[in-house]
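Methods — Computational structure assignment.
A single polypeptide chain was analysed. Its primary sequence is given first, followed by the predicted tertiary structure written as structure tokens.
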Amino acid sequence: MSLHGVSAGNGTCAISSGGGLMCWGLTRSTDAGNIRTPVPDLESDVVAVSYRGAGFCAITSVGGVWCGGRRVFGSVDCPHPPCANEFDNPTGLPIEVIAPGSGTMAVSPGIASHAVTSTGGVVCWGVGCNGDYYSVTREPVPISGLDSRVVEVTSGCSHACALTETGGVVCWGQNVVGQLGIGHTSGYHAKTTAVSGLEAGVVAVSAGCNHTCALKSTKDVVCWGFNDVGQIDPDNTDHKLSPWPMYGLGNDVAQVSAGWDSTCVLSTAGAVNCWPYQSGRDDMADPDQADRKWLGPVPGLGSGVTAITLGTDHICADVSGHGIVCLGCNDGGQLDPQATHRQCRID
């Protein structure tokens, strides 16, 4: 079966040639859902999917949004990390969050999920959307403070960022480790705030759990936020409170993808590099270079890659002539739900 538009979180989702949503891995509370079959209610008309952490959201051809997986609205009892095992949707089946006809342009799930509306605004549901970080909102509410139309939104564990049509980046949410990129730490920001030095010139933005990266029009990358294992700078694990230039990429980046505690880039030549090269797992690293931390080439993704998506502990790529290729951990079947191995390894 031909699949495209792959997105990785705790599990993996992609769209079939017939427009059906296919998901596998940690999408439900039991392994019964870990097979590549169409997701109920989303067997056709899906045009985009985004998977982050324990939840996924899909946009239909009529602009509606359905979200599934084990977390859709966050958790009242445990609204924020590290309570990763508290889920509000134990069946994993999708729930309609935004009605058809609303013209949703983009979506990014998370403990707080976000969607870009047809008018360039952003709506939010889940934890902290109403300005109170310890409450849960089950109906989408607008994010305040946006001065420009938004074209892309990305959700982290407790913050979110948006790319405006003028090429600027704004963020909101928690800033205890510099997630907002405003040069200092602080508490929760309900309204958007501009990221230092990124008022223009950005073409894409991607949030990990507590760090964010932006791709500039010059094809170089800057990142900011949590850096405990070197997901921004493996040579110095101080947190980066303002956008930090990612040296050594050669102004040759076509895409950046931030994961839970790692970051990957796709070069214009179709090769994938990730860092930190070793993040406590051997999931995307070459064992012959176990001491290397910086800019590790991903084995098997050295050419022909057209798009990447970085999940919690695995990476998937669209590869010319090979379709979707996934590498990393398979402990929940996120690479292949019917494979016999269930550990972190390249396969």
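Note: The two ends are 19 Å apart (CA to CA).
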